[in-house]
Amino acid sequence: MTDAILSLRGISKHFGGVKALTDVSLELERGKVVALVGDNGAGKSTLVKVMSGVHRPDSGKYIFEEREIQVSDPAAIADMGVQTVYQDLALCNNLDAVQNLFLGREMTGPWWTGFRLNRAEAERKARDVLKRLRLDSISLRRNVGAMSGGQRQNIAIARSILWEPKVVLLDEPTAALSHSAAEQVGALVRELASHGLAVLVISHDIHHFVLENTDRIEVLRLGRNAASFNSKEVTGEQVVNAMVGGNEAVNMAG
Amino acid sequence: MTVSDIKKQNITATAQPKRGLSERLGSELRFVPVAVGLLALFLFFSTQSDVFLTSRNLNNLLVQSTVTGIIALGLVFVLLVGEIDLSVAATSGVASVLMAQLVVEAGIPIPLAVAAGVLCGMVIGAISGRWITLIGVPSFVVTLGVGLLLNGVQLMLLPRTGRYNLLNTGVEKIAATNISGIWAWILVIGAIAVFALLRLSTLRARQRAELDASFTWGVILPVALVGVVLVGILLFLENLHGLPMPLIIFVGLLGVMTYVASETRFGLSLYAIGNNAEAARRAGIKVDRIKITAFAIAGGMAAFGGILAASRLLGVSVSSGGGIGGGALLLESIAAAVIGGVSLFGGRGMVVGALFGALIIATVSNGLNLMGVANEARLVVTGLLLVLAVSIDRGIERLAERS
Ligand SMILES: Nc1ncnc2c1ncn2[C@@H]1O[C@H](COP(=O)(O)OP(=O)(O)OP(=O)(O)O)[C@@H](O)[C@H]1O
Ligand SMILES: [Mg+2]
Question: What is the mean pLDDT of residues A21-32?
């Protein structure tokens, strides 16, 4: 447990009458990929939004690097070293990969140049980062609108780690991807963990993506912790069973 | 996926993919189709009229395009963030009347009166922009209303005669001045030198960062192109009176604004917002502030265009700023930006588009005039050109998407 970098203890969150999360606990460790799975509406996205500071939990503890954090706003959480990639990616299709990677954090010259963009420096840095992540097949100067879904997803992930966070949260990175594109993303996720990051990834693709690319699987059901598995020692059926609950699920899956 | 798979993938795919022509046409070569169109129009009219290619006529044509061009130039900034400003023509009218009133009634020095006019335009733009971002109402409705409001203000500012005469006030000299001889050369060579220095510094930065950098493509060719065009214009107009001041101002503004839009953080934010405002906001860009600035730029440019028009026409009147509703001035300014490849949906287009669009509109009007074609036919042709330009633009975009 000493490796835990981010822990949630007994988190609850409700929206009006809807109990989205009840007494949920979760740990993320350095160098480990944790999958967060569950049926639609189980509370996965809500949990990620609590971790990224979008939602303030009603109760429970948020512990980062052994200190309790008062969740205030997303920017503070991001500065702390927790980056989130949402499903919509938030990329600008009319800009190239370099521009998207540095969007809002451009390197610029002095004021008398009108804060002239330091494009060359940005491109060099982007190239190095993509190389380190084994993403050198991505064209730096191409508009991301012209890229494949997998490449776009990977650019969004690469952007999140550009400023060296300690934790990366990915909400359904493979939802809209083909099998081979999802494999690219899986490779990147493992690569991030190998650099010592703690990674949380939400996915519905249990049989391929989750079992092949994660270390641990946390199951949410109806806003509660339902089960926790070691990815190497579990079958897809067992995970699905825990997601839906009860034996009828086994029949449905089987 | 196993480690060996990753390695394999890594080895087979390290080469940076080349960007195709259609993709380049969609971005940095975006101006090429319009430029080709403009060239075609020039060729066509030169075969139709002996007068067309004379210095005197080209001088007229260039000066004709400056007012529309400057207004379109400001409009580009608003279009880039995915908004529109339908009050630019009215803003130009009010600002020019204000300037005239300050000069004629209050005897205020011309530079101050001009500055006051431009400032007035910027404030109008900023207020519209603030209102649009604050309330979240569509910009075309707000600026339509602001335009009508300004038309009313313009009528109120004008004296009972409905006109301020600017002849012999000194204001007429702004448009009537020509720079010739050694000063014209200094100006042209200075402009080329600044451009060359910017290209060189870009090349140096790329070399320092150990990126691919080509002296031929990055410096020689662009500088040669700009040099040939500028020196060509100078040589052509030299034997007349030299370079007309409106043209110098237009090209100067074009240069500065191109730098702002393509080299600065503010410029990049415009493009980002125009494509995906939510992504820009999440990236930490102050979306509202950038939009308001864009509207202020459009207002300031419109005001300046109006003042230039007042100077050329030796006065301001009810019909300054295109008259009620903005008339042809408003429509041609929007058309110029759109013909120049600036998307009405935001995020796409270049500042030089305003130049090409304004030149195309002025060329059609000038050329058809020389051919003795009636005014109604001129409108028909300009309208068709607008539709054609947007269609070609859309076609290129489709090609770029497919690749
Ligand atoms: N902002 C909100 N306001 C009201 N209810 C919400 C809000 N966000 C989530 N909920 C509710 O909380 C519950 C959990 O939603 P959440 O989006 O976390 O599920 P999920 O596990 O991510 O589902 P999916 O797999 O469909 O993405 C749902 O009942 C949802 O309707
Ligand atoms: Mg969700």
Answer: 96
Q: Do B264 and A114 touch (CB under 8 A)?
A: yes
A40 lines ligand 1 (CB under 6 A): yes
| C-alpha separations of B134 from B76, B131, B288 in Å | 22, 5, 8
- Residue B318 is encoded by which pair of tokens? 């009810």
DSSP-assigned letters across all residues of B74-124: HHHHHHHTT---TTHHHHHHHHHHHHHHHHHTT---HHHHHHHHHHHHHHH
Residue B132 has pLDDT above 80, yes or no: yes
Give the contacts of A21 (CB within 8 A, at least 6 positions apart). Answer: A11, A12, A13, A14, A43, A46, A47, A50, A57, A223, A224
pTM over 0.95: no
Q: Do the beta carbons of residue A226 and residue A43 sit within 8 Å?
A: no
Domain boundary assignment for chain B: 38-175+287-402
Determine contact: B272 vs chain A, CB below 8 A.
yes
Nearest to B95, CA basis, from B247, B308, B332: B308
Tokens 């953080």 found at? B265
Which residue, B245, B243, B273, B276, is CA-closest to B261?
Answer: B273
Question: Is the pLDDT reported for residue A124 higher than 50?
Answer: yes
ipTM of the shown complex? 0.88
The lowest-confidence range among A179-193, A228-242, B16-30, B210-224 is B16-30
At which residue do the structure tokens 């600017």 appear?
A: B166
Domains along chain A with CATH numbers: 4-94+165-251 (3.40.50.300)
Question: Atom 5 of ligand 1 has which residue's CA nearest to it?
Answer: A15
